[in-house]
Write a sequence for this structure.
């Protein structure tokens, strides 16, 4: 029983990171119908930026905020330069372009920072918390990770529902042509969507890097699982992304704990196939009727 | 007559390749064998993406299946080469059926995602059952030139012959397939799935068939890889391999078999060339090794933005050749944008 | 029009392929100089140069740390070149990236052997990667010396006569760690935390030859691609392990420490393989977690007391003649790299290679190098003798135990030697270590 509690709580921390990556993927998908394979490496690069700032100033929070700002800028930049030309083309073009961005950013990080593992600080203490004499298996930092992602998700929800910018985002995603007629600058809105996704991704990178160490390929496996979470939850559902991330994180922890670490990717694959066979648009996704 | 044309072309190519293999150095023969592996794998992938319109990021996994099949059949049953290659293709195509059926209802990014996860997860089977698959160290494969060629026959030339011959056979078969009724049906499904279904085509079965063909090619390429590198282990079948196949297909020209050759040449020859240039300019080892990585990314982006039809498309335009209908690149199609899921549907009004 | 197009295309394609290959061959890389007839005694040897090659993970998952080894070897070779070379020949060391991918390894090794005509392959790194090329090198009769891997598979003189290991293999290491634990931790509960490949599995095998089975309460493995090792650490804690033996790479030794903090698993003694315990690497990985309050404590605090083994002098042992020599080489040729265990290893194995080349004679053939090593080599910088003979191709036969104190490895006992059989005893080495020659060259 004690193990079960530890496995459950331990899975929440990574699960929230997968949820954050999934959330940023959903943001981009809803706005531009593109799956951003470079989301993980974008987060890695912004975390390196934070690492550099922390090294120079000694302040974690300075690095944290710089990473988020860098995420905004990087997302906007990528959308404006390489994604804009492929937004109205067949989906394969965007797949290849985003994979190209992924590879390019990893190479650049390798050239600038080298391949060695960097130690990235956590925001709060990493020693375990206790409930009485029971070691819970989570730390204050884990609570911060979960909280930060929740705040980000709620912030996005508020943005979408209650602000004019959010309304424009929704309008452009719903019907770009009509929105343009109504005066919405669709191009700018799409850039904003990518910028926000970059922000959430940067948050995920900073939150998870203490546990993975920072190196050019550090976000690759996190991305794969965040992507799995988004697909399981349904690519057009932010709620699905968060739910998918949590479920996946905790479930993988059970598999790793009770069955063995080697089985986790196999389990992830099985779960994905199973969900998609039963609900091809994900657990919370909406089925799209095909246009004739 | 199609078959005769294709076979004739293949024979002509075979003569040229034979001439090259005896006149070039042993290392070039080895590289020829390497290129042939990628030609077969990329040809299968380019048919899947270009002709039937499905994106697979996991063909590296089918290559792994074919490679391990070869190693195991040789280890336990001692089958000769001419039996190993078809057997590996068949085994991989069985896996292709399984994946194709599971993925039949998936479209676009969902299919890409499922295949990506397949590529990530499959190597773990090898380490999960180390007794069977040899674990991390893998299994070895031995290939010797037949005694009839003489004891001093260079082994690399035999590898080049075996792999090149297999590649030519596969190209002939795929070219025939593209010109056949099945190829036309694939393109119909690719261009407008609903219209094809209304016209009486069994969409699901055609999509699965495309997957099977692509998996068979990849499995055969895996067998060729096992023979050429004489070792099969999980480290050779990472996601990087699947991405390299996709890159080759795109750069060469999607849907085009000649494009598979261009793509293979690029994928095999360019990275080492770039690293050599970098080290000769005095850059440190680690930086020099990362430059091809960054350059790779730039090339992918540039090709997609500027030359979406790849090298073969560029060559065709250069010579003013109208591409045959069989190979209209997917990237030139205009696509109606499906409206994304929205509050409209969440509120239940359709 | 279509018909002509169809017939032309494949032949055209093949012709262009030929042109491409020919063009690539003209513009290709690292050319071996043409051998002059007089003193070129083997491929790769000319009157003025010895050309050797290697495959190394310069990119990819294994690159951190390991990518320093080849530049360090090269630095020592440059030192030798600057001091007259070997019999007047300079050593040229070409190491190519295989990204830890065995099919790429086959490719670059074929390039080195067939195109560049190297004299020997030196210090090829990685077990699955090198296994892909070992038979090829032996069938091509290319010396395959000092493989950078602790697998016992390189000790196979009948099947792989041209292949030689270097560092102590993992079974030997497991036995030595095991015998230490049997002596000092009798009656305590032991747990294993090991990498799920032949590195970890061989290590555990060696441990099991020494530690009584009844003492082992839990065996947990990890895979390098999954950093979430919470479940494994929780299992070790639940089993009550008082001593945990780690056969893990530095990242996972560090992660183990961090997970223990999170799970309040506070008191196990850690005994770890030297693969994962280079003190400066570990401290670098843990430095971000050692900050307390406003003050920055070095990552050393978290590495204090980790028990480990080593077969070279400790990097922190500045009074040692080898460390002094290699530090000098490092400061001259590769000052930007940290002077840590990987760099020390690279230079030590380069030194042993130079010893072997000197022994091979004035105009050595490939067979001469193999025979030179088969005849046995002096220890040089390593603390225990090599096992090299015509019947045994494994390398260093032992190591000393030590622990990490204040960020440096401190020796805590004599050098212990053993073999890799289940019953071979672990004995104290009674010979003396060698000192570095004043000239820095053997």
């Amino acid at each position: 029983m004690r193990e079960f509690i530890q496995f459950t709580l331990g899975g929440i921390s990574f699960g929230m990171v997968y949820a954050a990556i999934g959330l940023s993927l959903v943001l981009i998908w809803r706005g531009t119908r593109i799956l951003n394979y470079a989301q993980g490496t974008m987060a890695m690069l912004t975390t390196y930026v934070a690492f550099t700032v922390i090294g120079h100033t000694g302040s974690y929070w300075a690095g944290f905020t710089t990473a988020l700002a860098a995420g905004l800028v990087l997302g906007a930049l990528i959308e404006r330069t390489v994604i804009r030309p492929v937004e109205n083309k067949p989906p394969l073009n965007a797949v290849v372009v985003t994979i190209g961005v992924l590879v390019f950013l990893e190479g650049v990080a390798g050239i600038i920072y080298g391949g060695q593992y960097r130690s990235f600080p956590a925001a709060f203490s990493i020693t375990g918390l206790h409930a009485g004499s029971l070691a819970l298996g989570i730390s204050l930092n884990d609570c911060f990770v979960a909280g930060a992602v929740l705040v980000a998700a709620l912030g996005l929800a508020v943005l979408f529902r209650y602000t004019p910018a959010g309304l424009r985002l929704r309008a452009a995603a719903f019907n770009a042509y009509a929105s343009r007629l109504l005066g919405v600058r669709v191009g700018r809105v799409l850039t904003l969507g990518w910028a926000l996704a970059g922000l959430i991704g940067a948050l995920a990178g900073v939150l998870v890097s203490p546990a993975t160490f920072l190196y050019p390929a550090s976000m690759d496996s996190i991305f794969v699982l965040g992507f799995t979470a988004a697909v399981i939850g349904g690519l057009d559902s932010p709620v699905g992304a968060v739910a998918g991330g949590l479920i996946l994180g905790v479930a993988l922890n059970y598999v790793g704990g009770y069955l063995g670490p080697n089985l986790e990717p196999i389990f992830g694959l099985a779960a994905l196939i199973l969900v998609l066979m039963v609900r091809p648009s994900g657990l919370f996704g909406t089925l799209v009727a095909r246009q004739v | 007559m199609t078959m005769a044309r294709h076979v004739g072309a293949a024979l002509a190519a075979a003569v040229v390749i034979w001439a090259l293999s005896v006149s070039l150095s042993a290392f070039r023969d080895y590289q020829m064998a390497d290129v042939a592996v990628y030609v077969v794998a990329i040809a299968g992938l380019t048919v899947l993406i270009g002709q039937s319109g499905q994106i697979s990021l996991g063909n590296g996994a089918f290559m792994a299946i074919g490679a391990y099949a070869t190693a195991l059949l040789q280890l336990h049953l001692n089958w000769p080469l001419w039996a190993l290659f078809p057997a590996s293709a068949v085994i991989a195509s069985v896996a292709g059926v399984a994946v194709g059926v599971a993925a039949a209802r998936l479209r676009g990014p969902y299919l890409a995602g499922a295949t990506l996860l397949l590529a990530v997860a499959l190597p773990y089977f090898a380490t999960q059952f180390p007794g069977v698959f040899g674990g991390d160290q893998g299994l070895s494969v031995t290939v010797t030139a037949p005694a009839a060629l003489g004891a001093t026959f260079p082994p690399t030339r035999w590898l080049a012959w075996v792999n090149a011959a297999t590649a030519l056979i596969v190209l002939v078969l795929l070219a025939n397939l593209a010109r056949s009724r099945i190829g036309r049906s694939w393109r119909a499904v690719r261009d407008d799935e609903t219209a094809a279904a209304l016209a009486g085509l069994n969409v699901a079965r055609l999509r699965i068939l495309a997957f099977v063909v692509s998996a068979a090619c990849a499995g055969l390429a895996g067998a060729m890889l096992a023979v050429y590198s004489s070792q099969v282990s999980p480290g050779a079948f990472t996601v990087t391999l699947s991405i390299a196949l996709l890159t080759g297909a795109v750069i060469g020209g999607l849907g085009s078999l000649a494009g598979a050759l261009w793509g293979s040449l690029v994928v095999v020859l360019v990275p080492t060339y770039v690293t050599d240039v970098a080290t000769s300019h005095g850059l440190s080892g680690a930086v020099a090794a990362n430059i091809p990585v960054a350059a790779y990314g730039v090339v992918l982006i540039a090709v997609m933005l500027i030359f979406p039809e790849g090298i073969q498309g560029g060559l065709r335009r250069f010579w003013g050749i109208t591409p045959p209908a069989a190979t209209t690149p997917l990237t030139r199609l205009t696509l109606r944008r499906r409206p994304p899921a929205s509050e409209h549907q969440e509120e239940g009004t359709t | 029009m279509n018909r002509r197009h169809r017939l032309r295309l494949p032949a055209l394609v093949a012709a262009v392929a030929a042109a491409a290959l020919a063009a690539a061959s003209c513009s290709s890389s690292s050319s071996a100089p043409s051998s002059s007839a007089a003193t070129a005694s083997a491929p790769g040897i000319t009157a003025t140069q010895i050309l050797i090659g290697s495959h190394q993970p310069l990119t990819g998952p294994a690159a951190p740390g390991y990518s320093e080894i080849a530049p360090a070897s090269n630095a020592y070779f440059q030192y030798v070149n600057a001091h007259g070379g070997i019999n007047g020949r300079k050593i040229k060391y070409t190491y190519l990236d295989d990204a830890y991918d065995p099919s790429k390894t086959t490719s670059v090794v074929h390039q080195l052997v067939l195109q560049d005509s190297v004299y020997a392959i030196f210090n090829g790194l990685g077990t699955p990667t090198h296994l892909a090329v070992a038979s090829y090198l032996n069938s091509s009769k290319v010396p395959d010396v000092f493989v950078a891997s602790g697998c016992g598979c390189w000790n196979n003189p009948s099947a792989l006569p041209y292949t030689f290991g270097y560092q102590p293999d993992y079974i030997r290491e497991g036995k030595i760690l095991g015998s230490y634990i049997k002596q000092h931790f009798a009656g305590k509960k032991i747990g294993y935390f090991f990498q799920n490949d032949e590195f970890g599995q061989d290590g555990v095998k060696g441990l099991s030859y020494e530690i009584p089975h009844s003492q082992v309460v839990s065996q947990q493995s990890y895979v390098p691609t999954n950093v979430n090792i919470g479940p494994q650490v929780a299992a070790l804690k639940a089993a009550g392990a008082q001593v945990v033996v780690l056969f893990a790479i530095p990242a996972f030794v560090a992660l183990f420490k961090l997970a223990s903090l999170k799970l309040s698993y506070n008191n196990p003694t850690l005994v770890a393989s030297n693969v994962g315990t280079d003190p400066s690497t570990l401290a670098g990985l843990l430095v971000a977690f050692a900050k307390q309050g406003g003050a920055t404590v070095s990552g050393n605090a978290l590495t204090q007391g980790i028990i480990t083994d080593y077969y070279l002098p400790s990097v922190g042992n500045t009074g040692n003649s080898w460390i002094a020599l290699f530090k000098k080489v490092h400061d001259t040729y590769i000052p930007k790299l940290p002077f840590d265990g990987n760099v020390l290893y690279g230079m030590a194995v380069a030194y042993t290679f130079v010893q072997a080349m000197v022994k091979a004679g004035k105009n050595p053939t490939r067979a001469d190098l193999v025979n030179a090593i088969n005849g046995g080599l002096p220890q040089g910088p390593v603390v225990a003798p090599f096992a090299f003979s015509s019947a045994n191709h494994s390398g260093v036969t032992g190591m000393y135990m030590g622990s990490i104190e204040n960020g440096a490895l401190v020796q805590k006992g004599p050098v212990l030697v053993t073999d890799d059989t289940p019953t071979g005893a672990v004995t104290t080495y009674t010979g003396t270590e060698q000192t570095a020659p004043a000239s820095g060259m053997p």
Notes: Residues 2-32 of chain A form the longest helix (31 residues). The mean pLDDT of chain A is 89. Chain A touches chain C through 41 residues (CB under 8 Å). Chain A has one domain: 2-125+133-278.
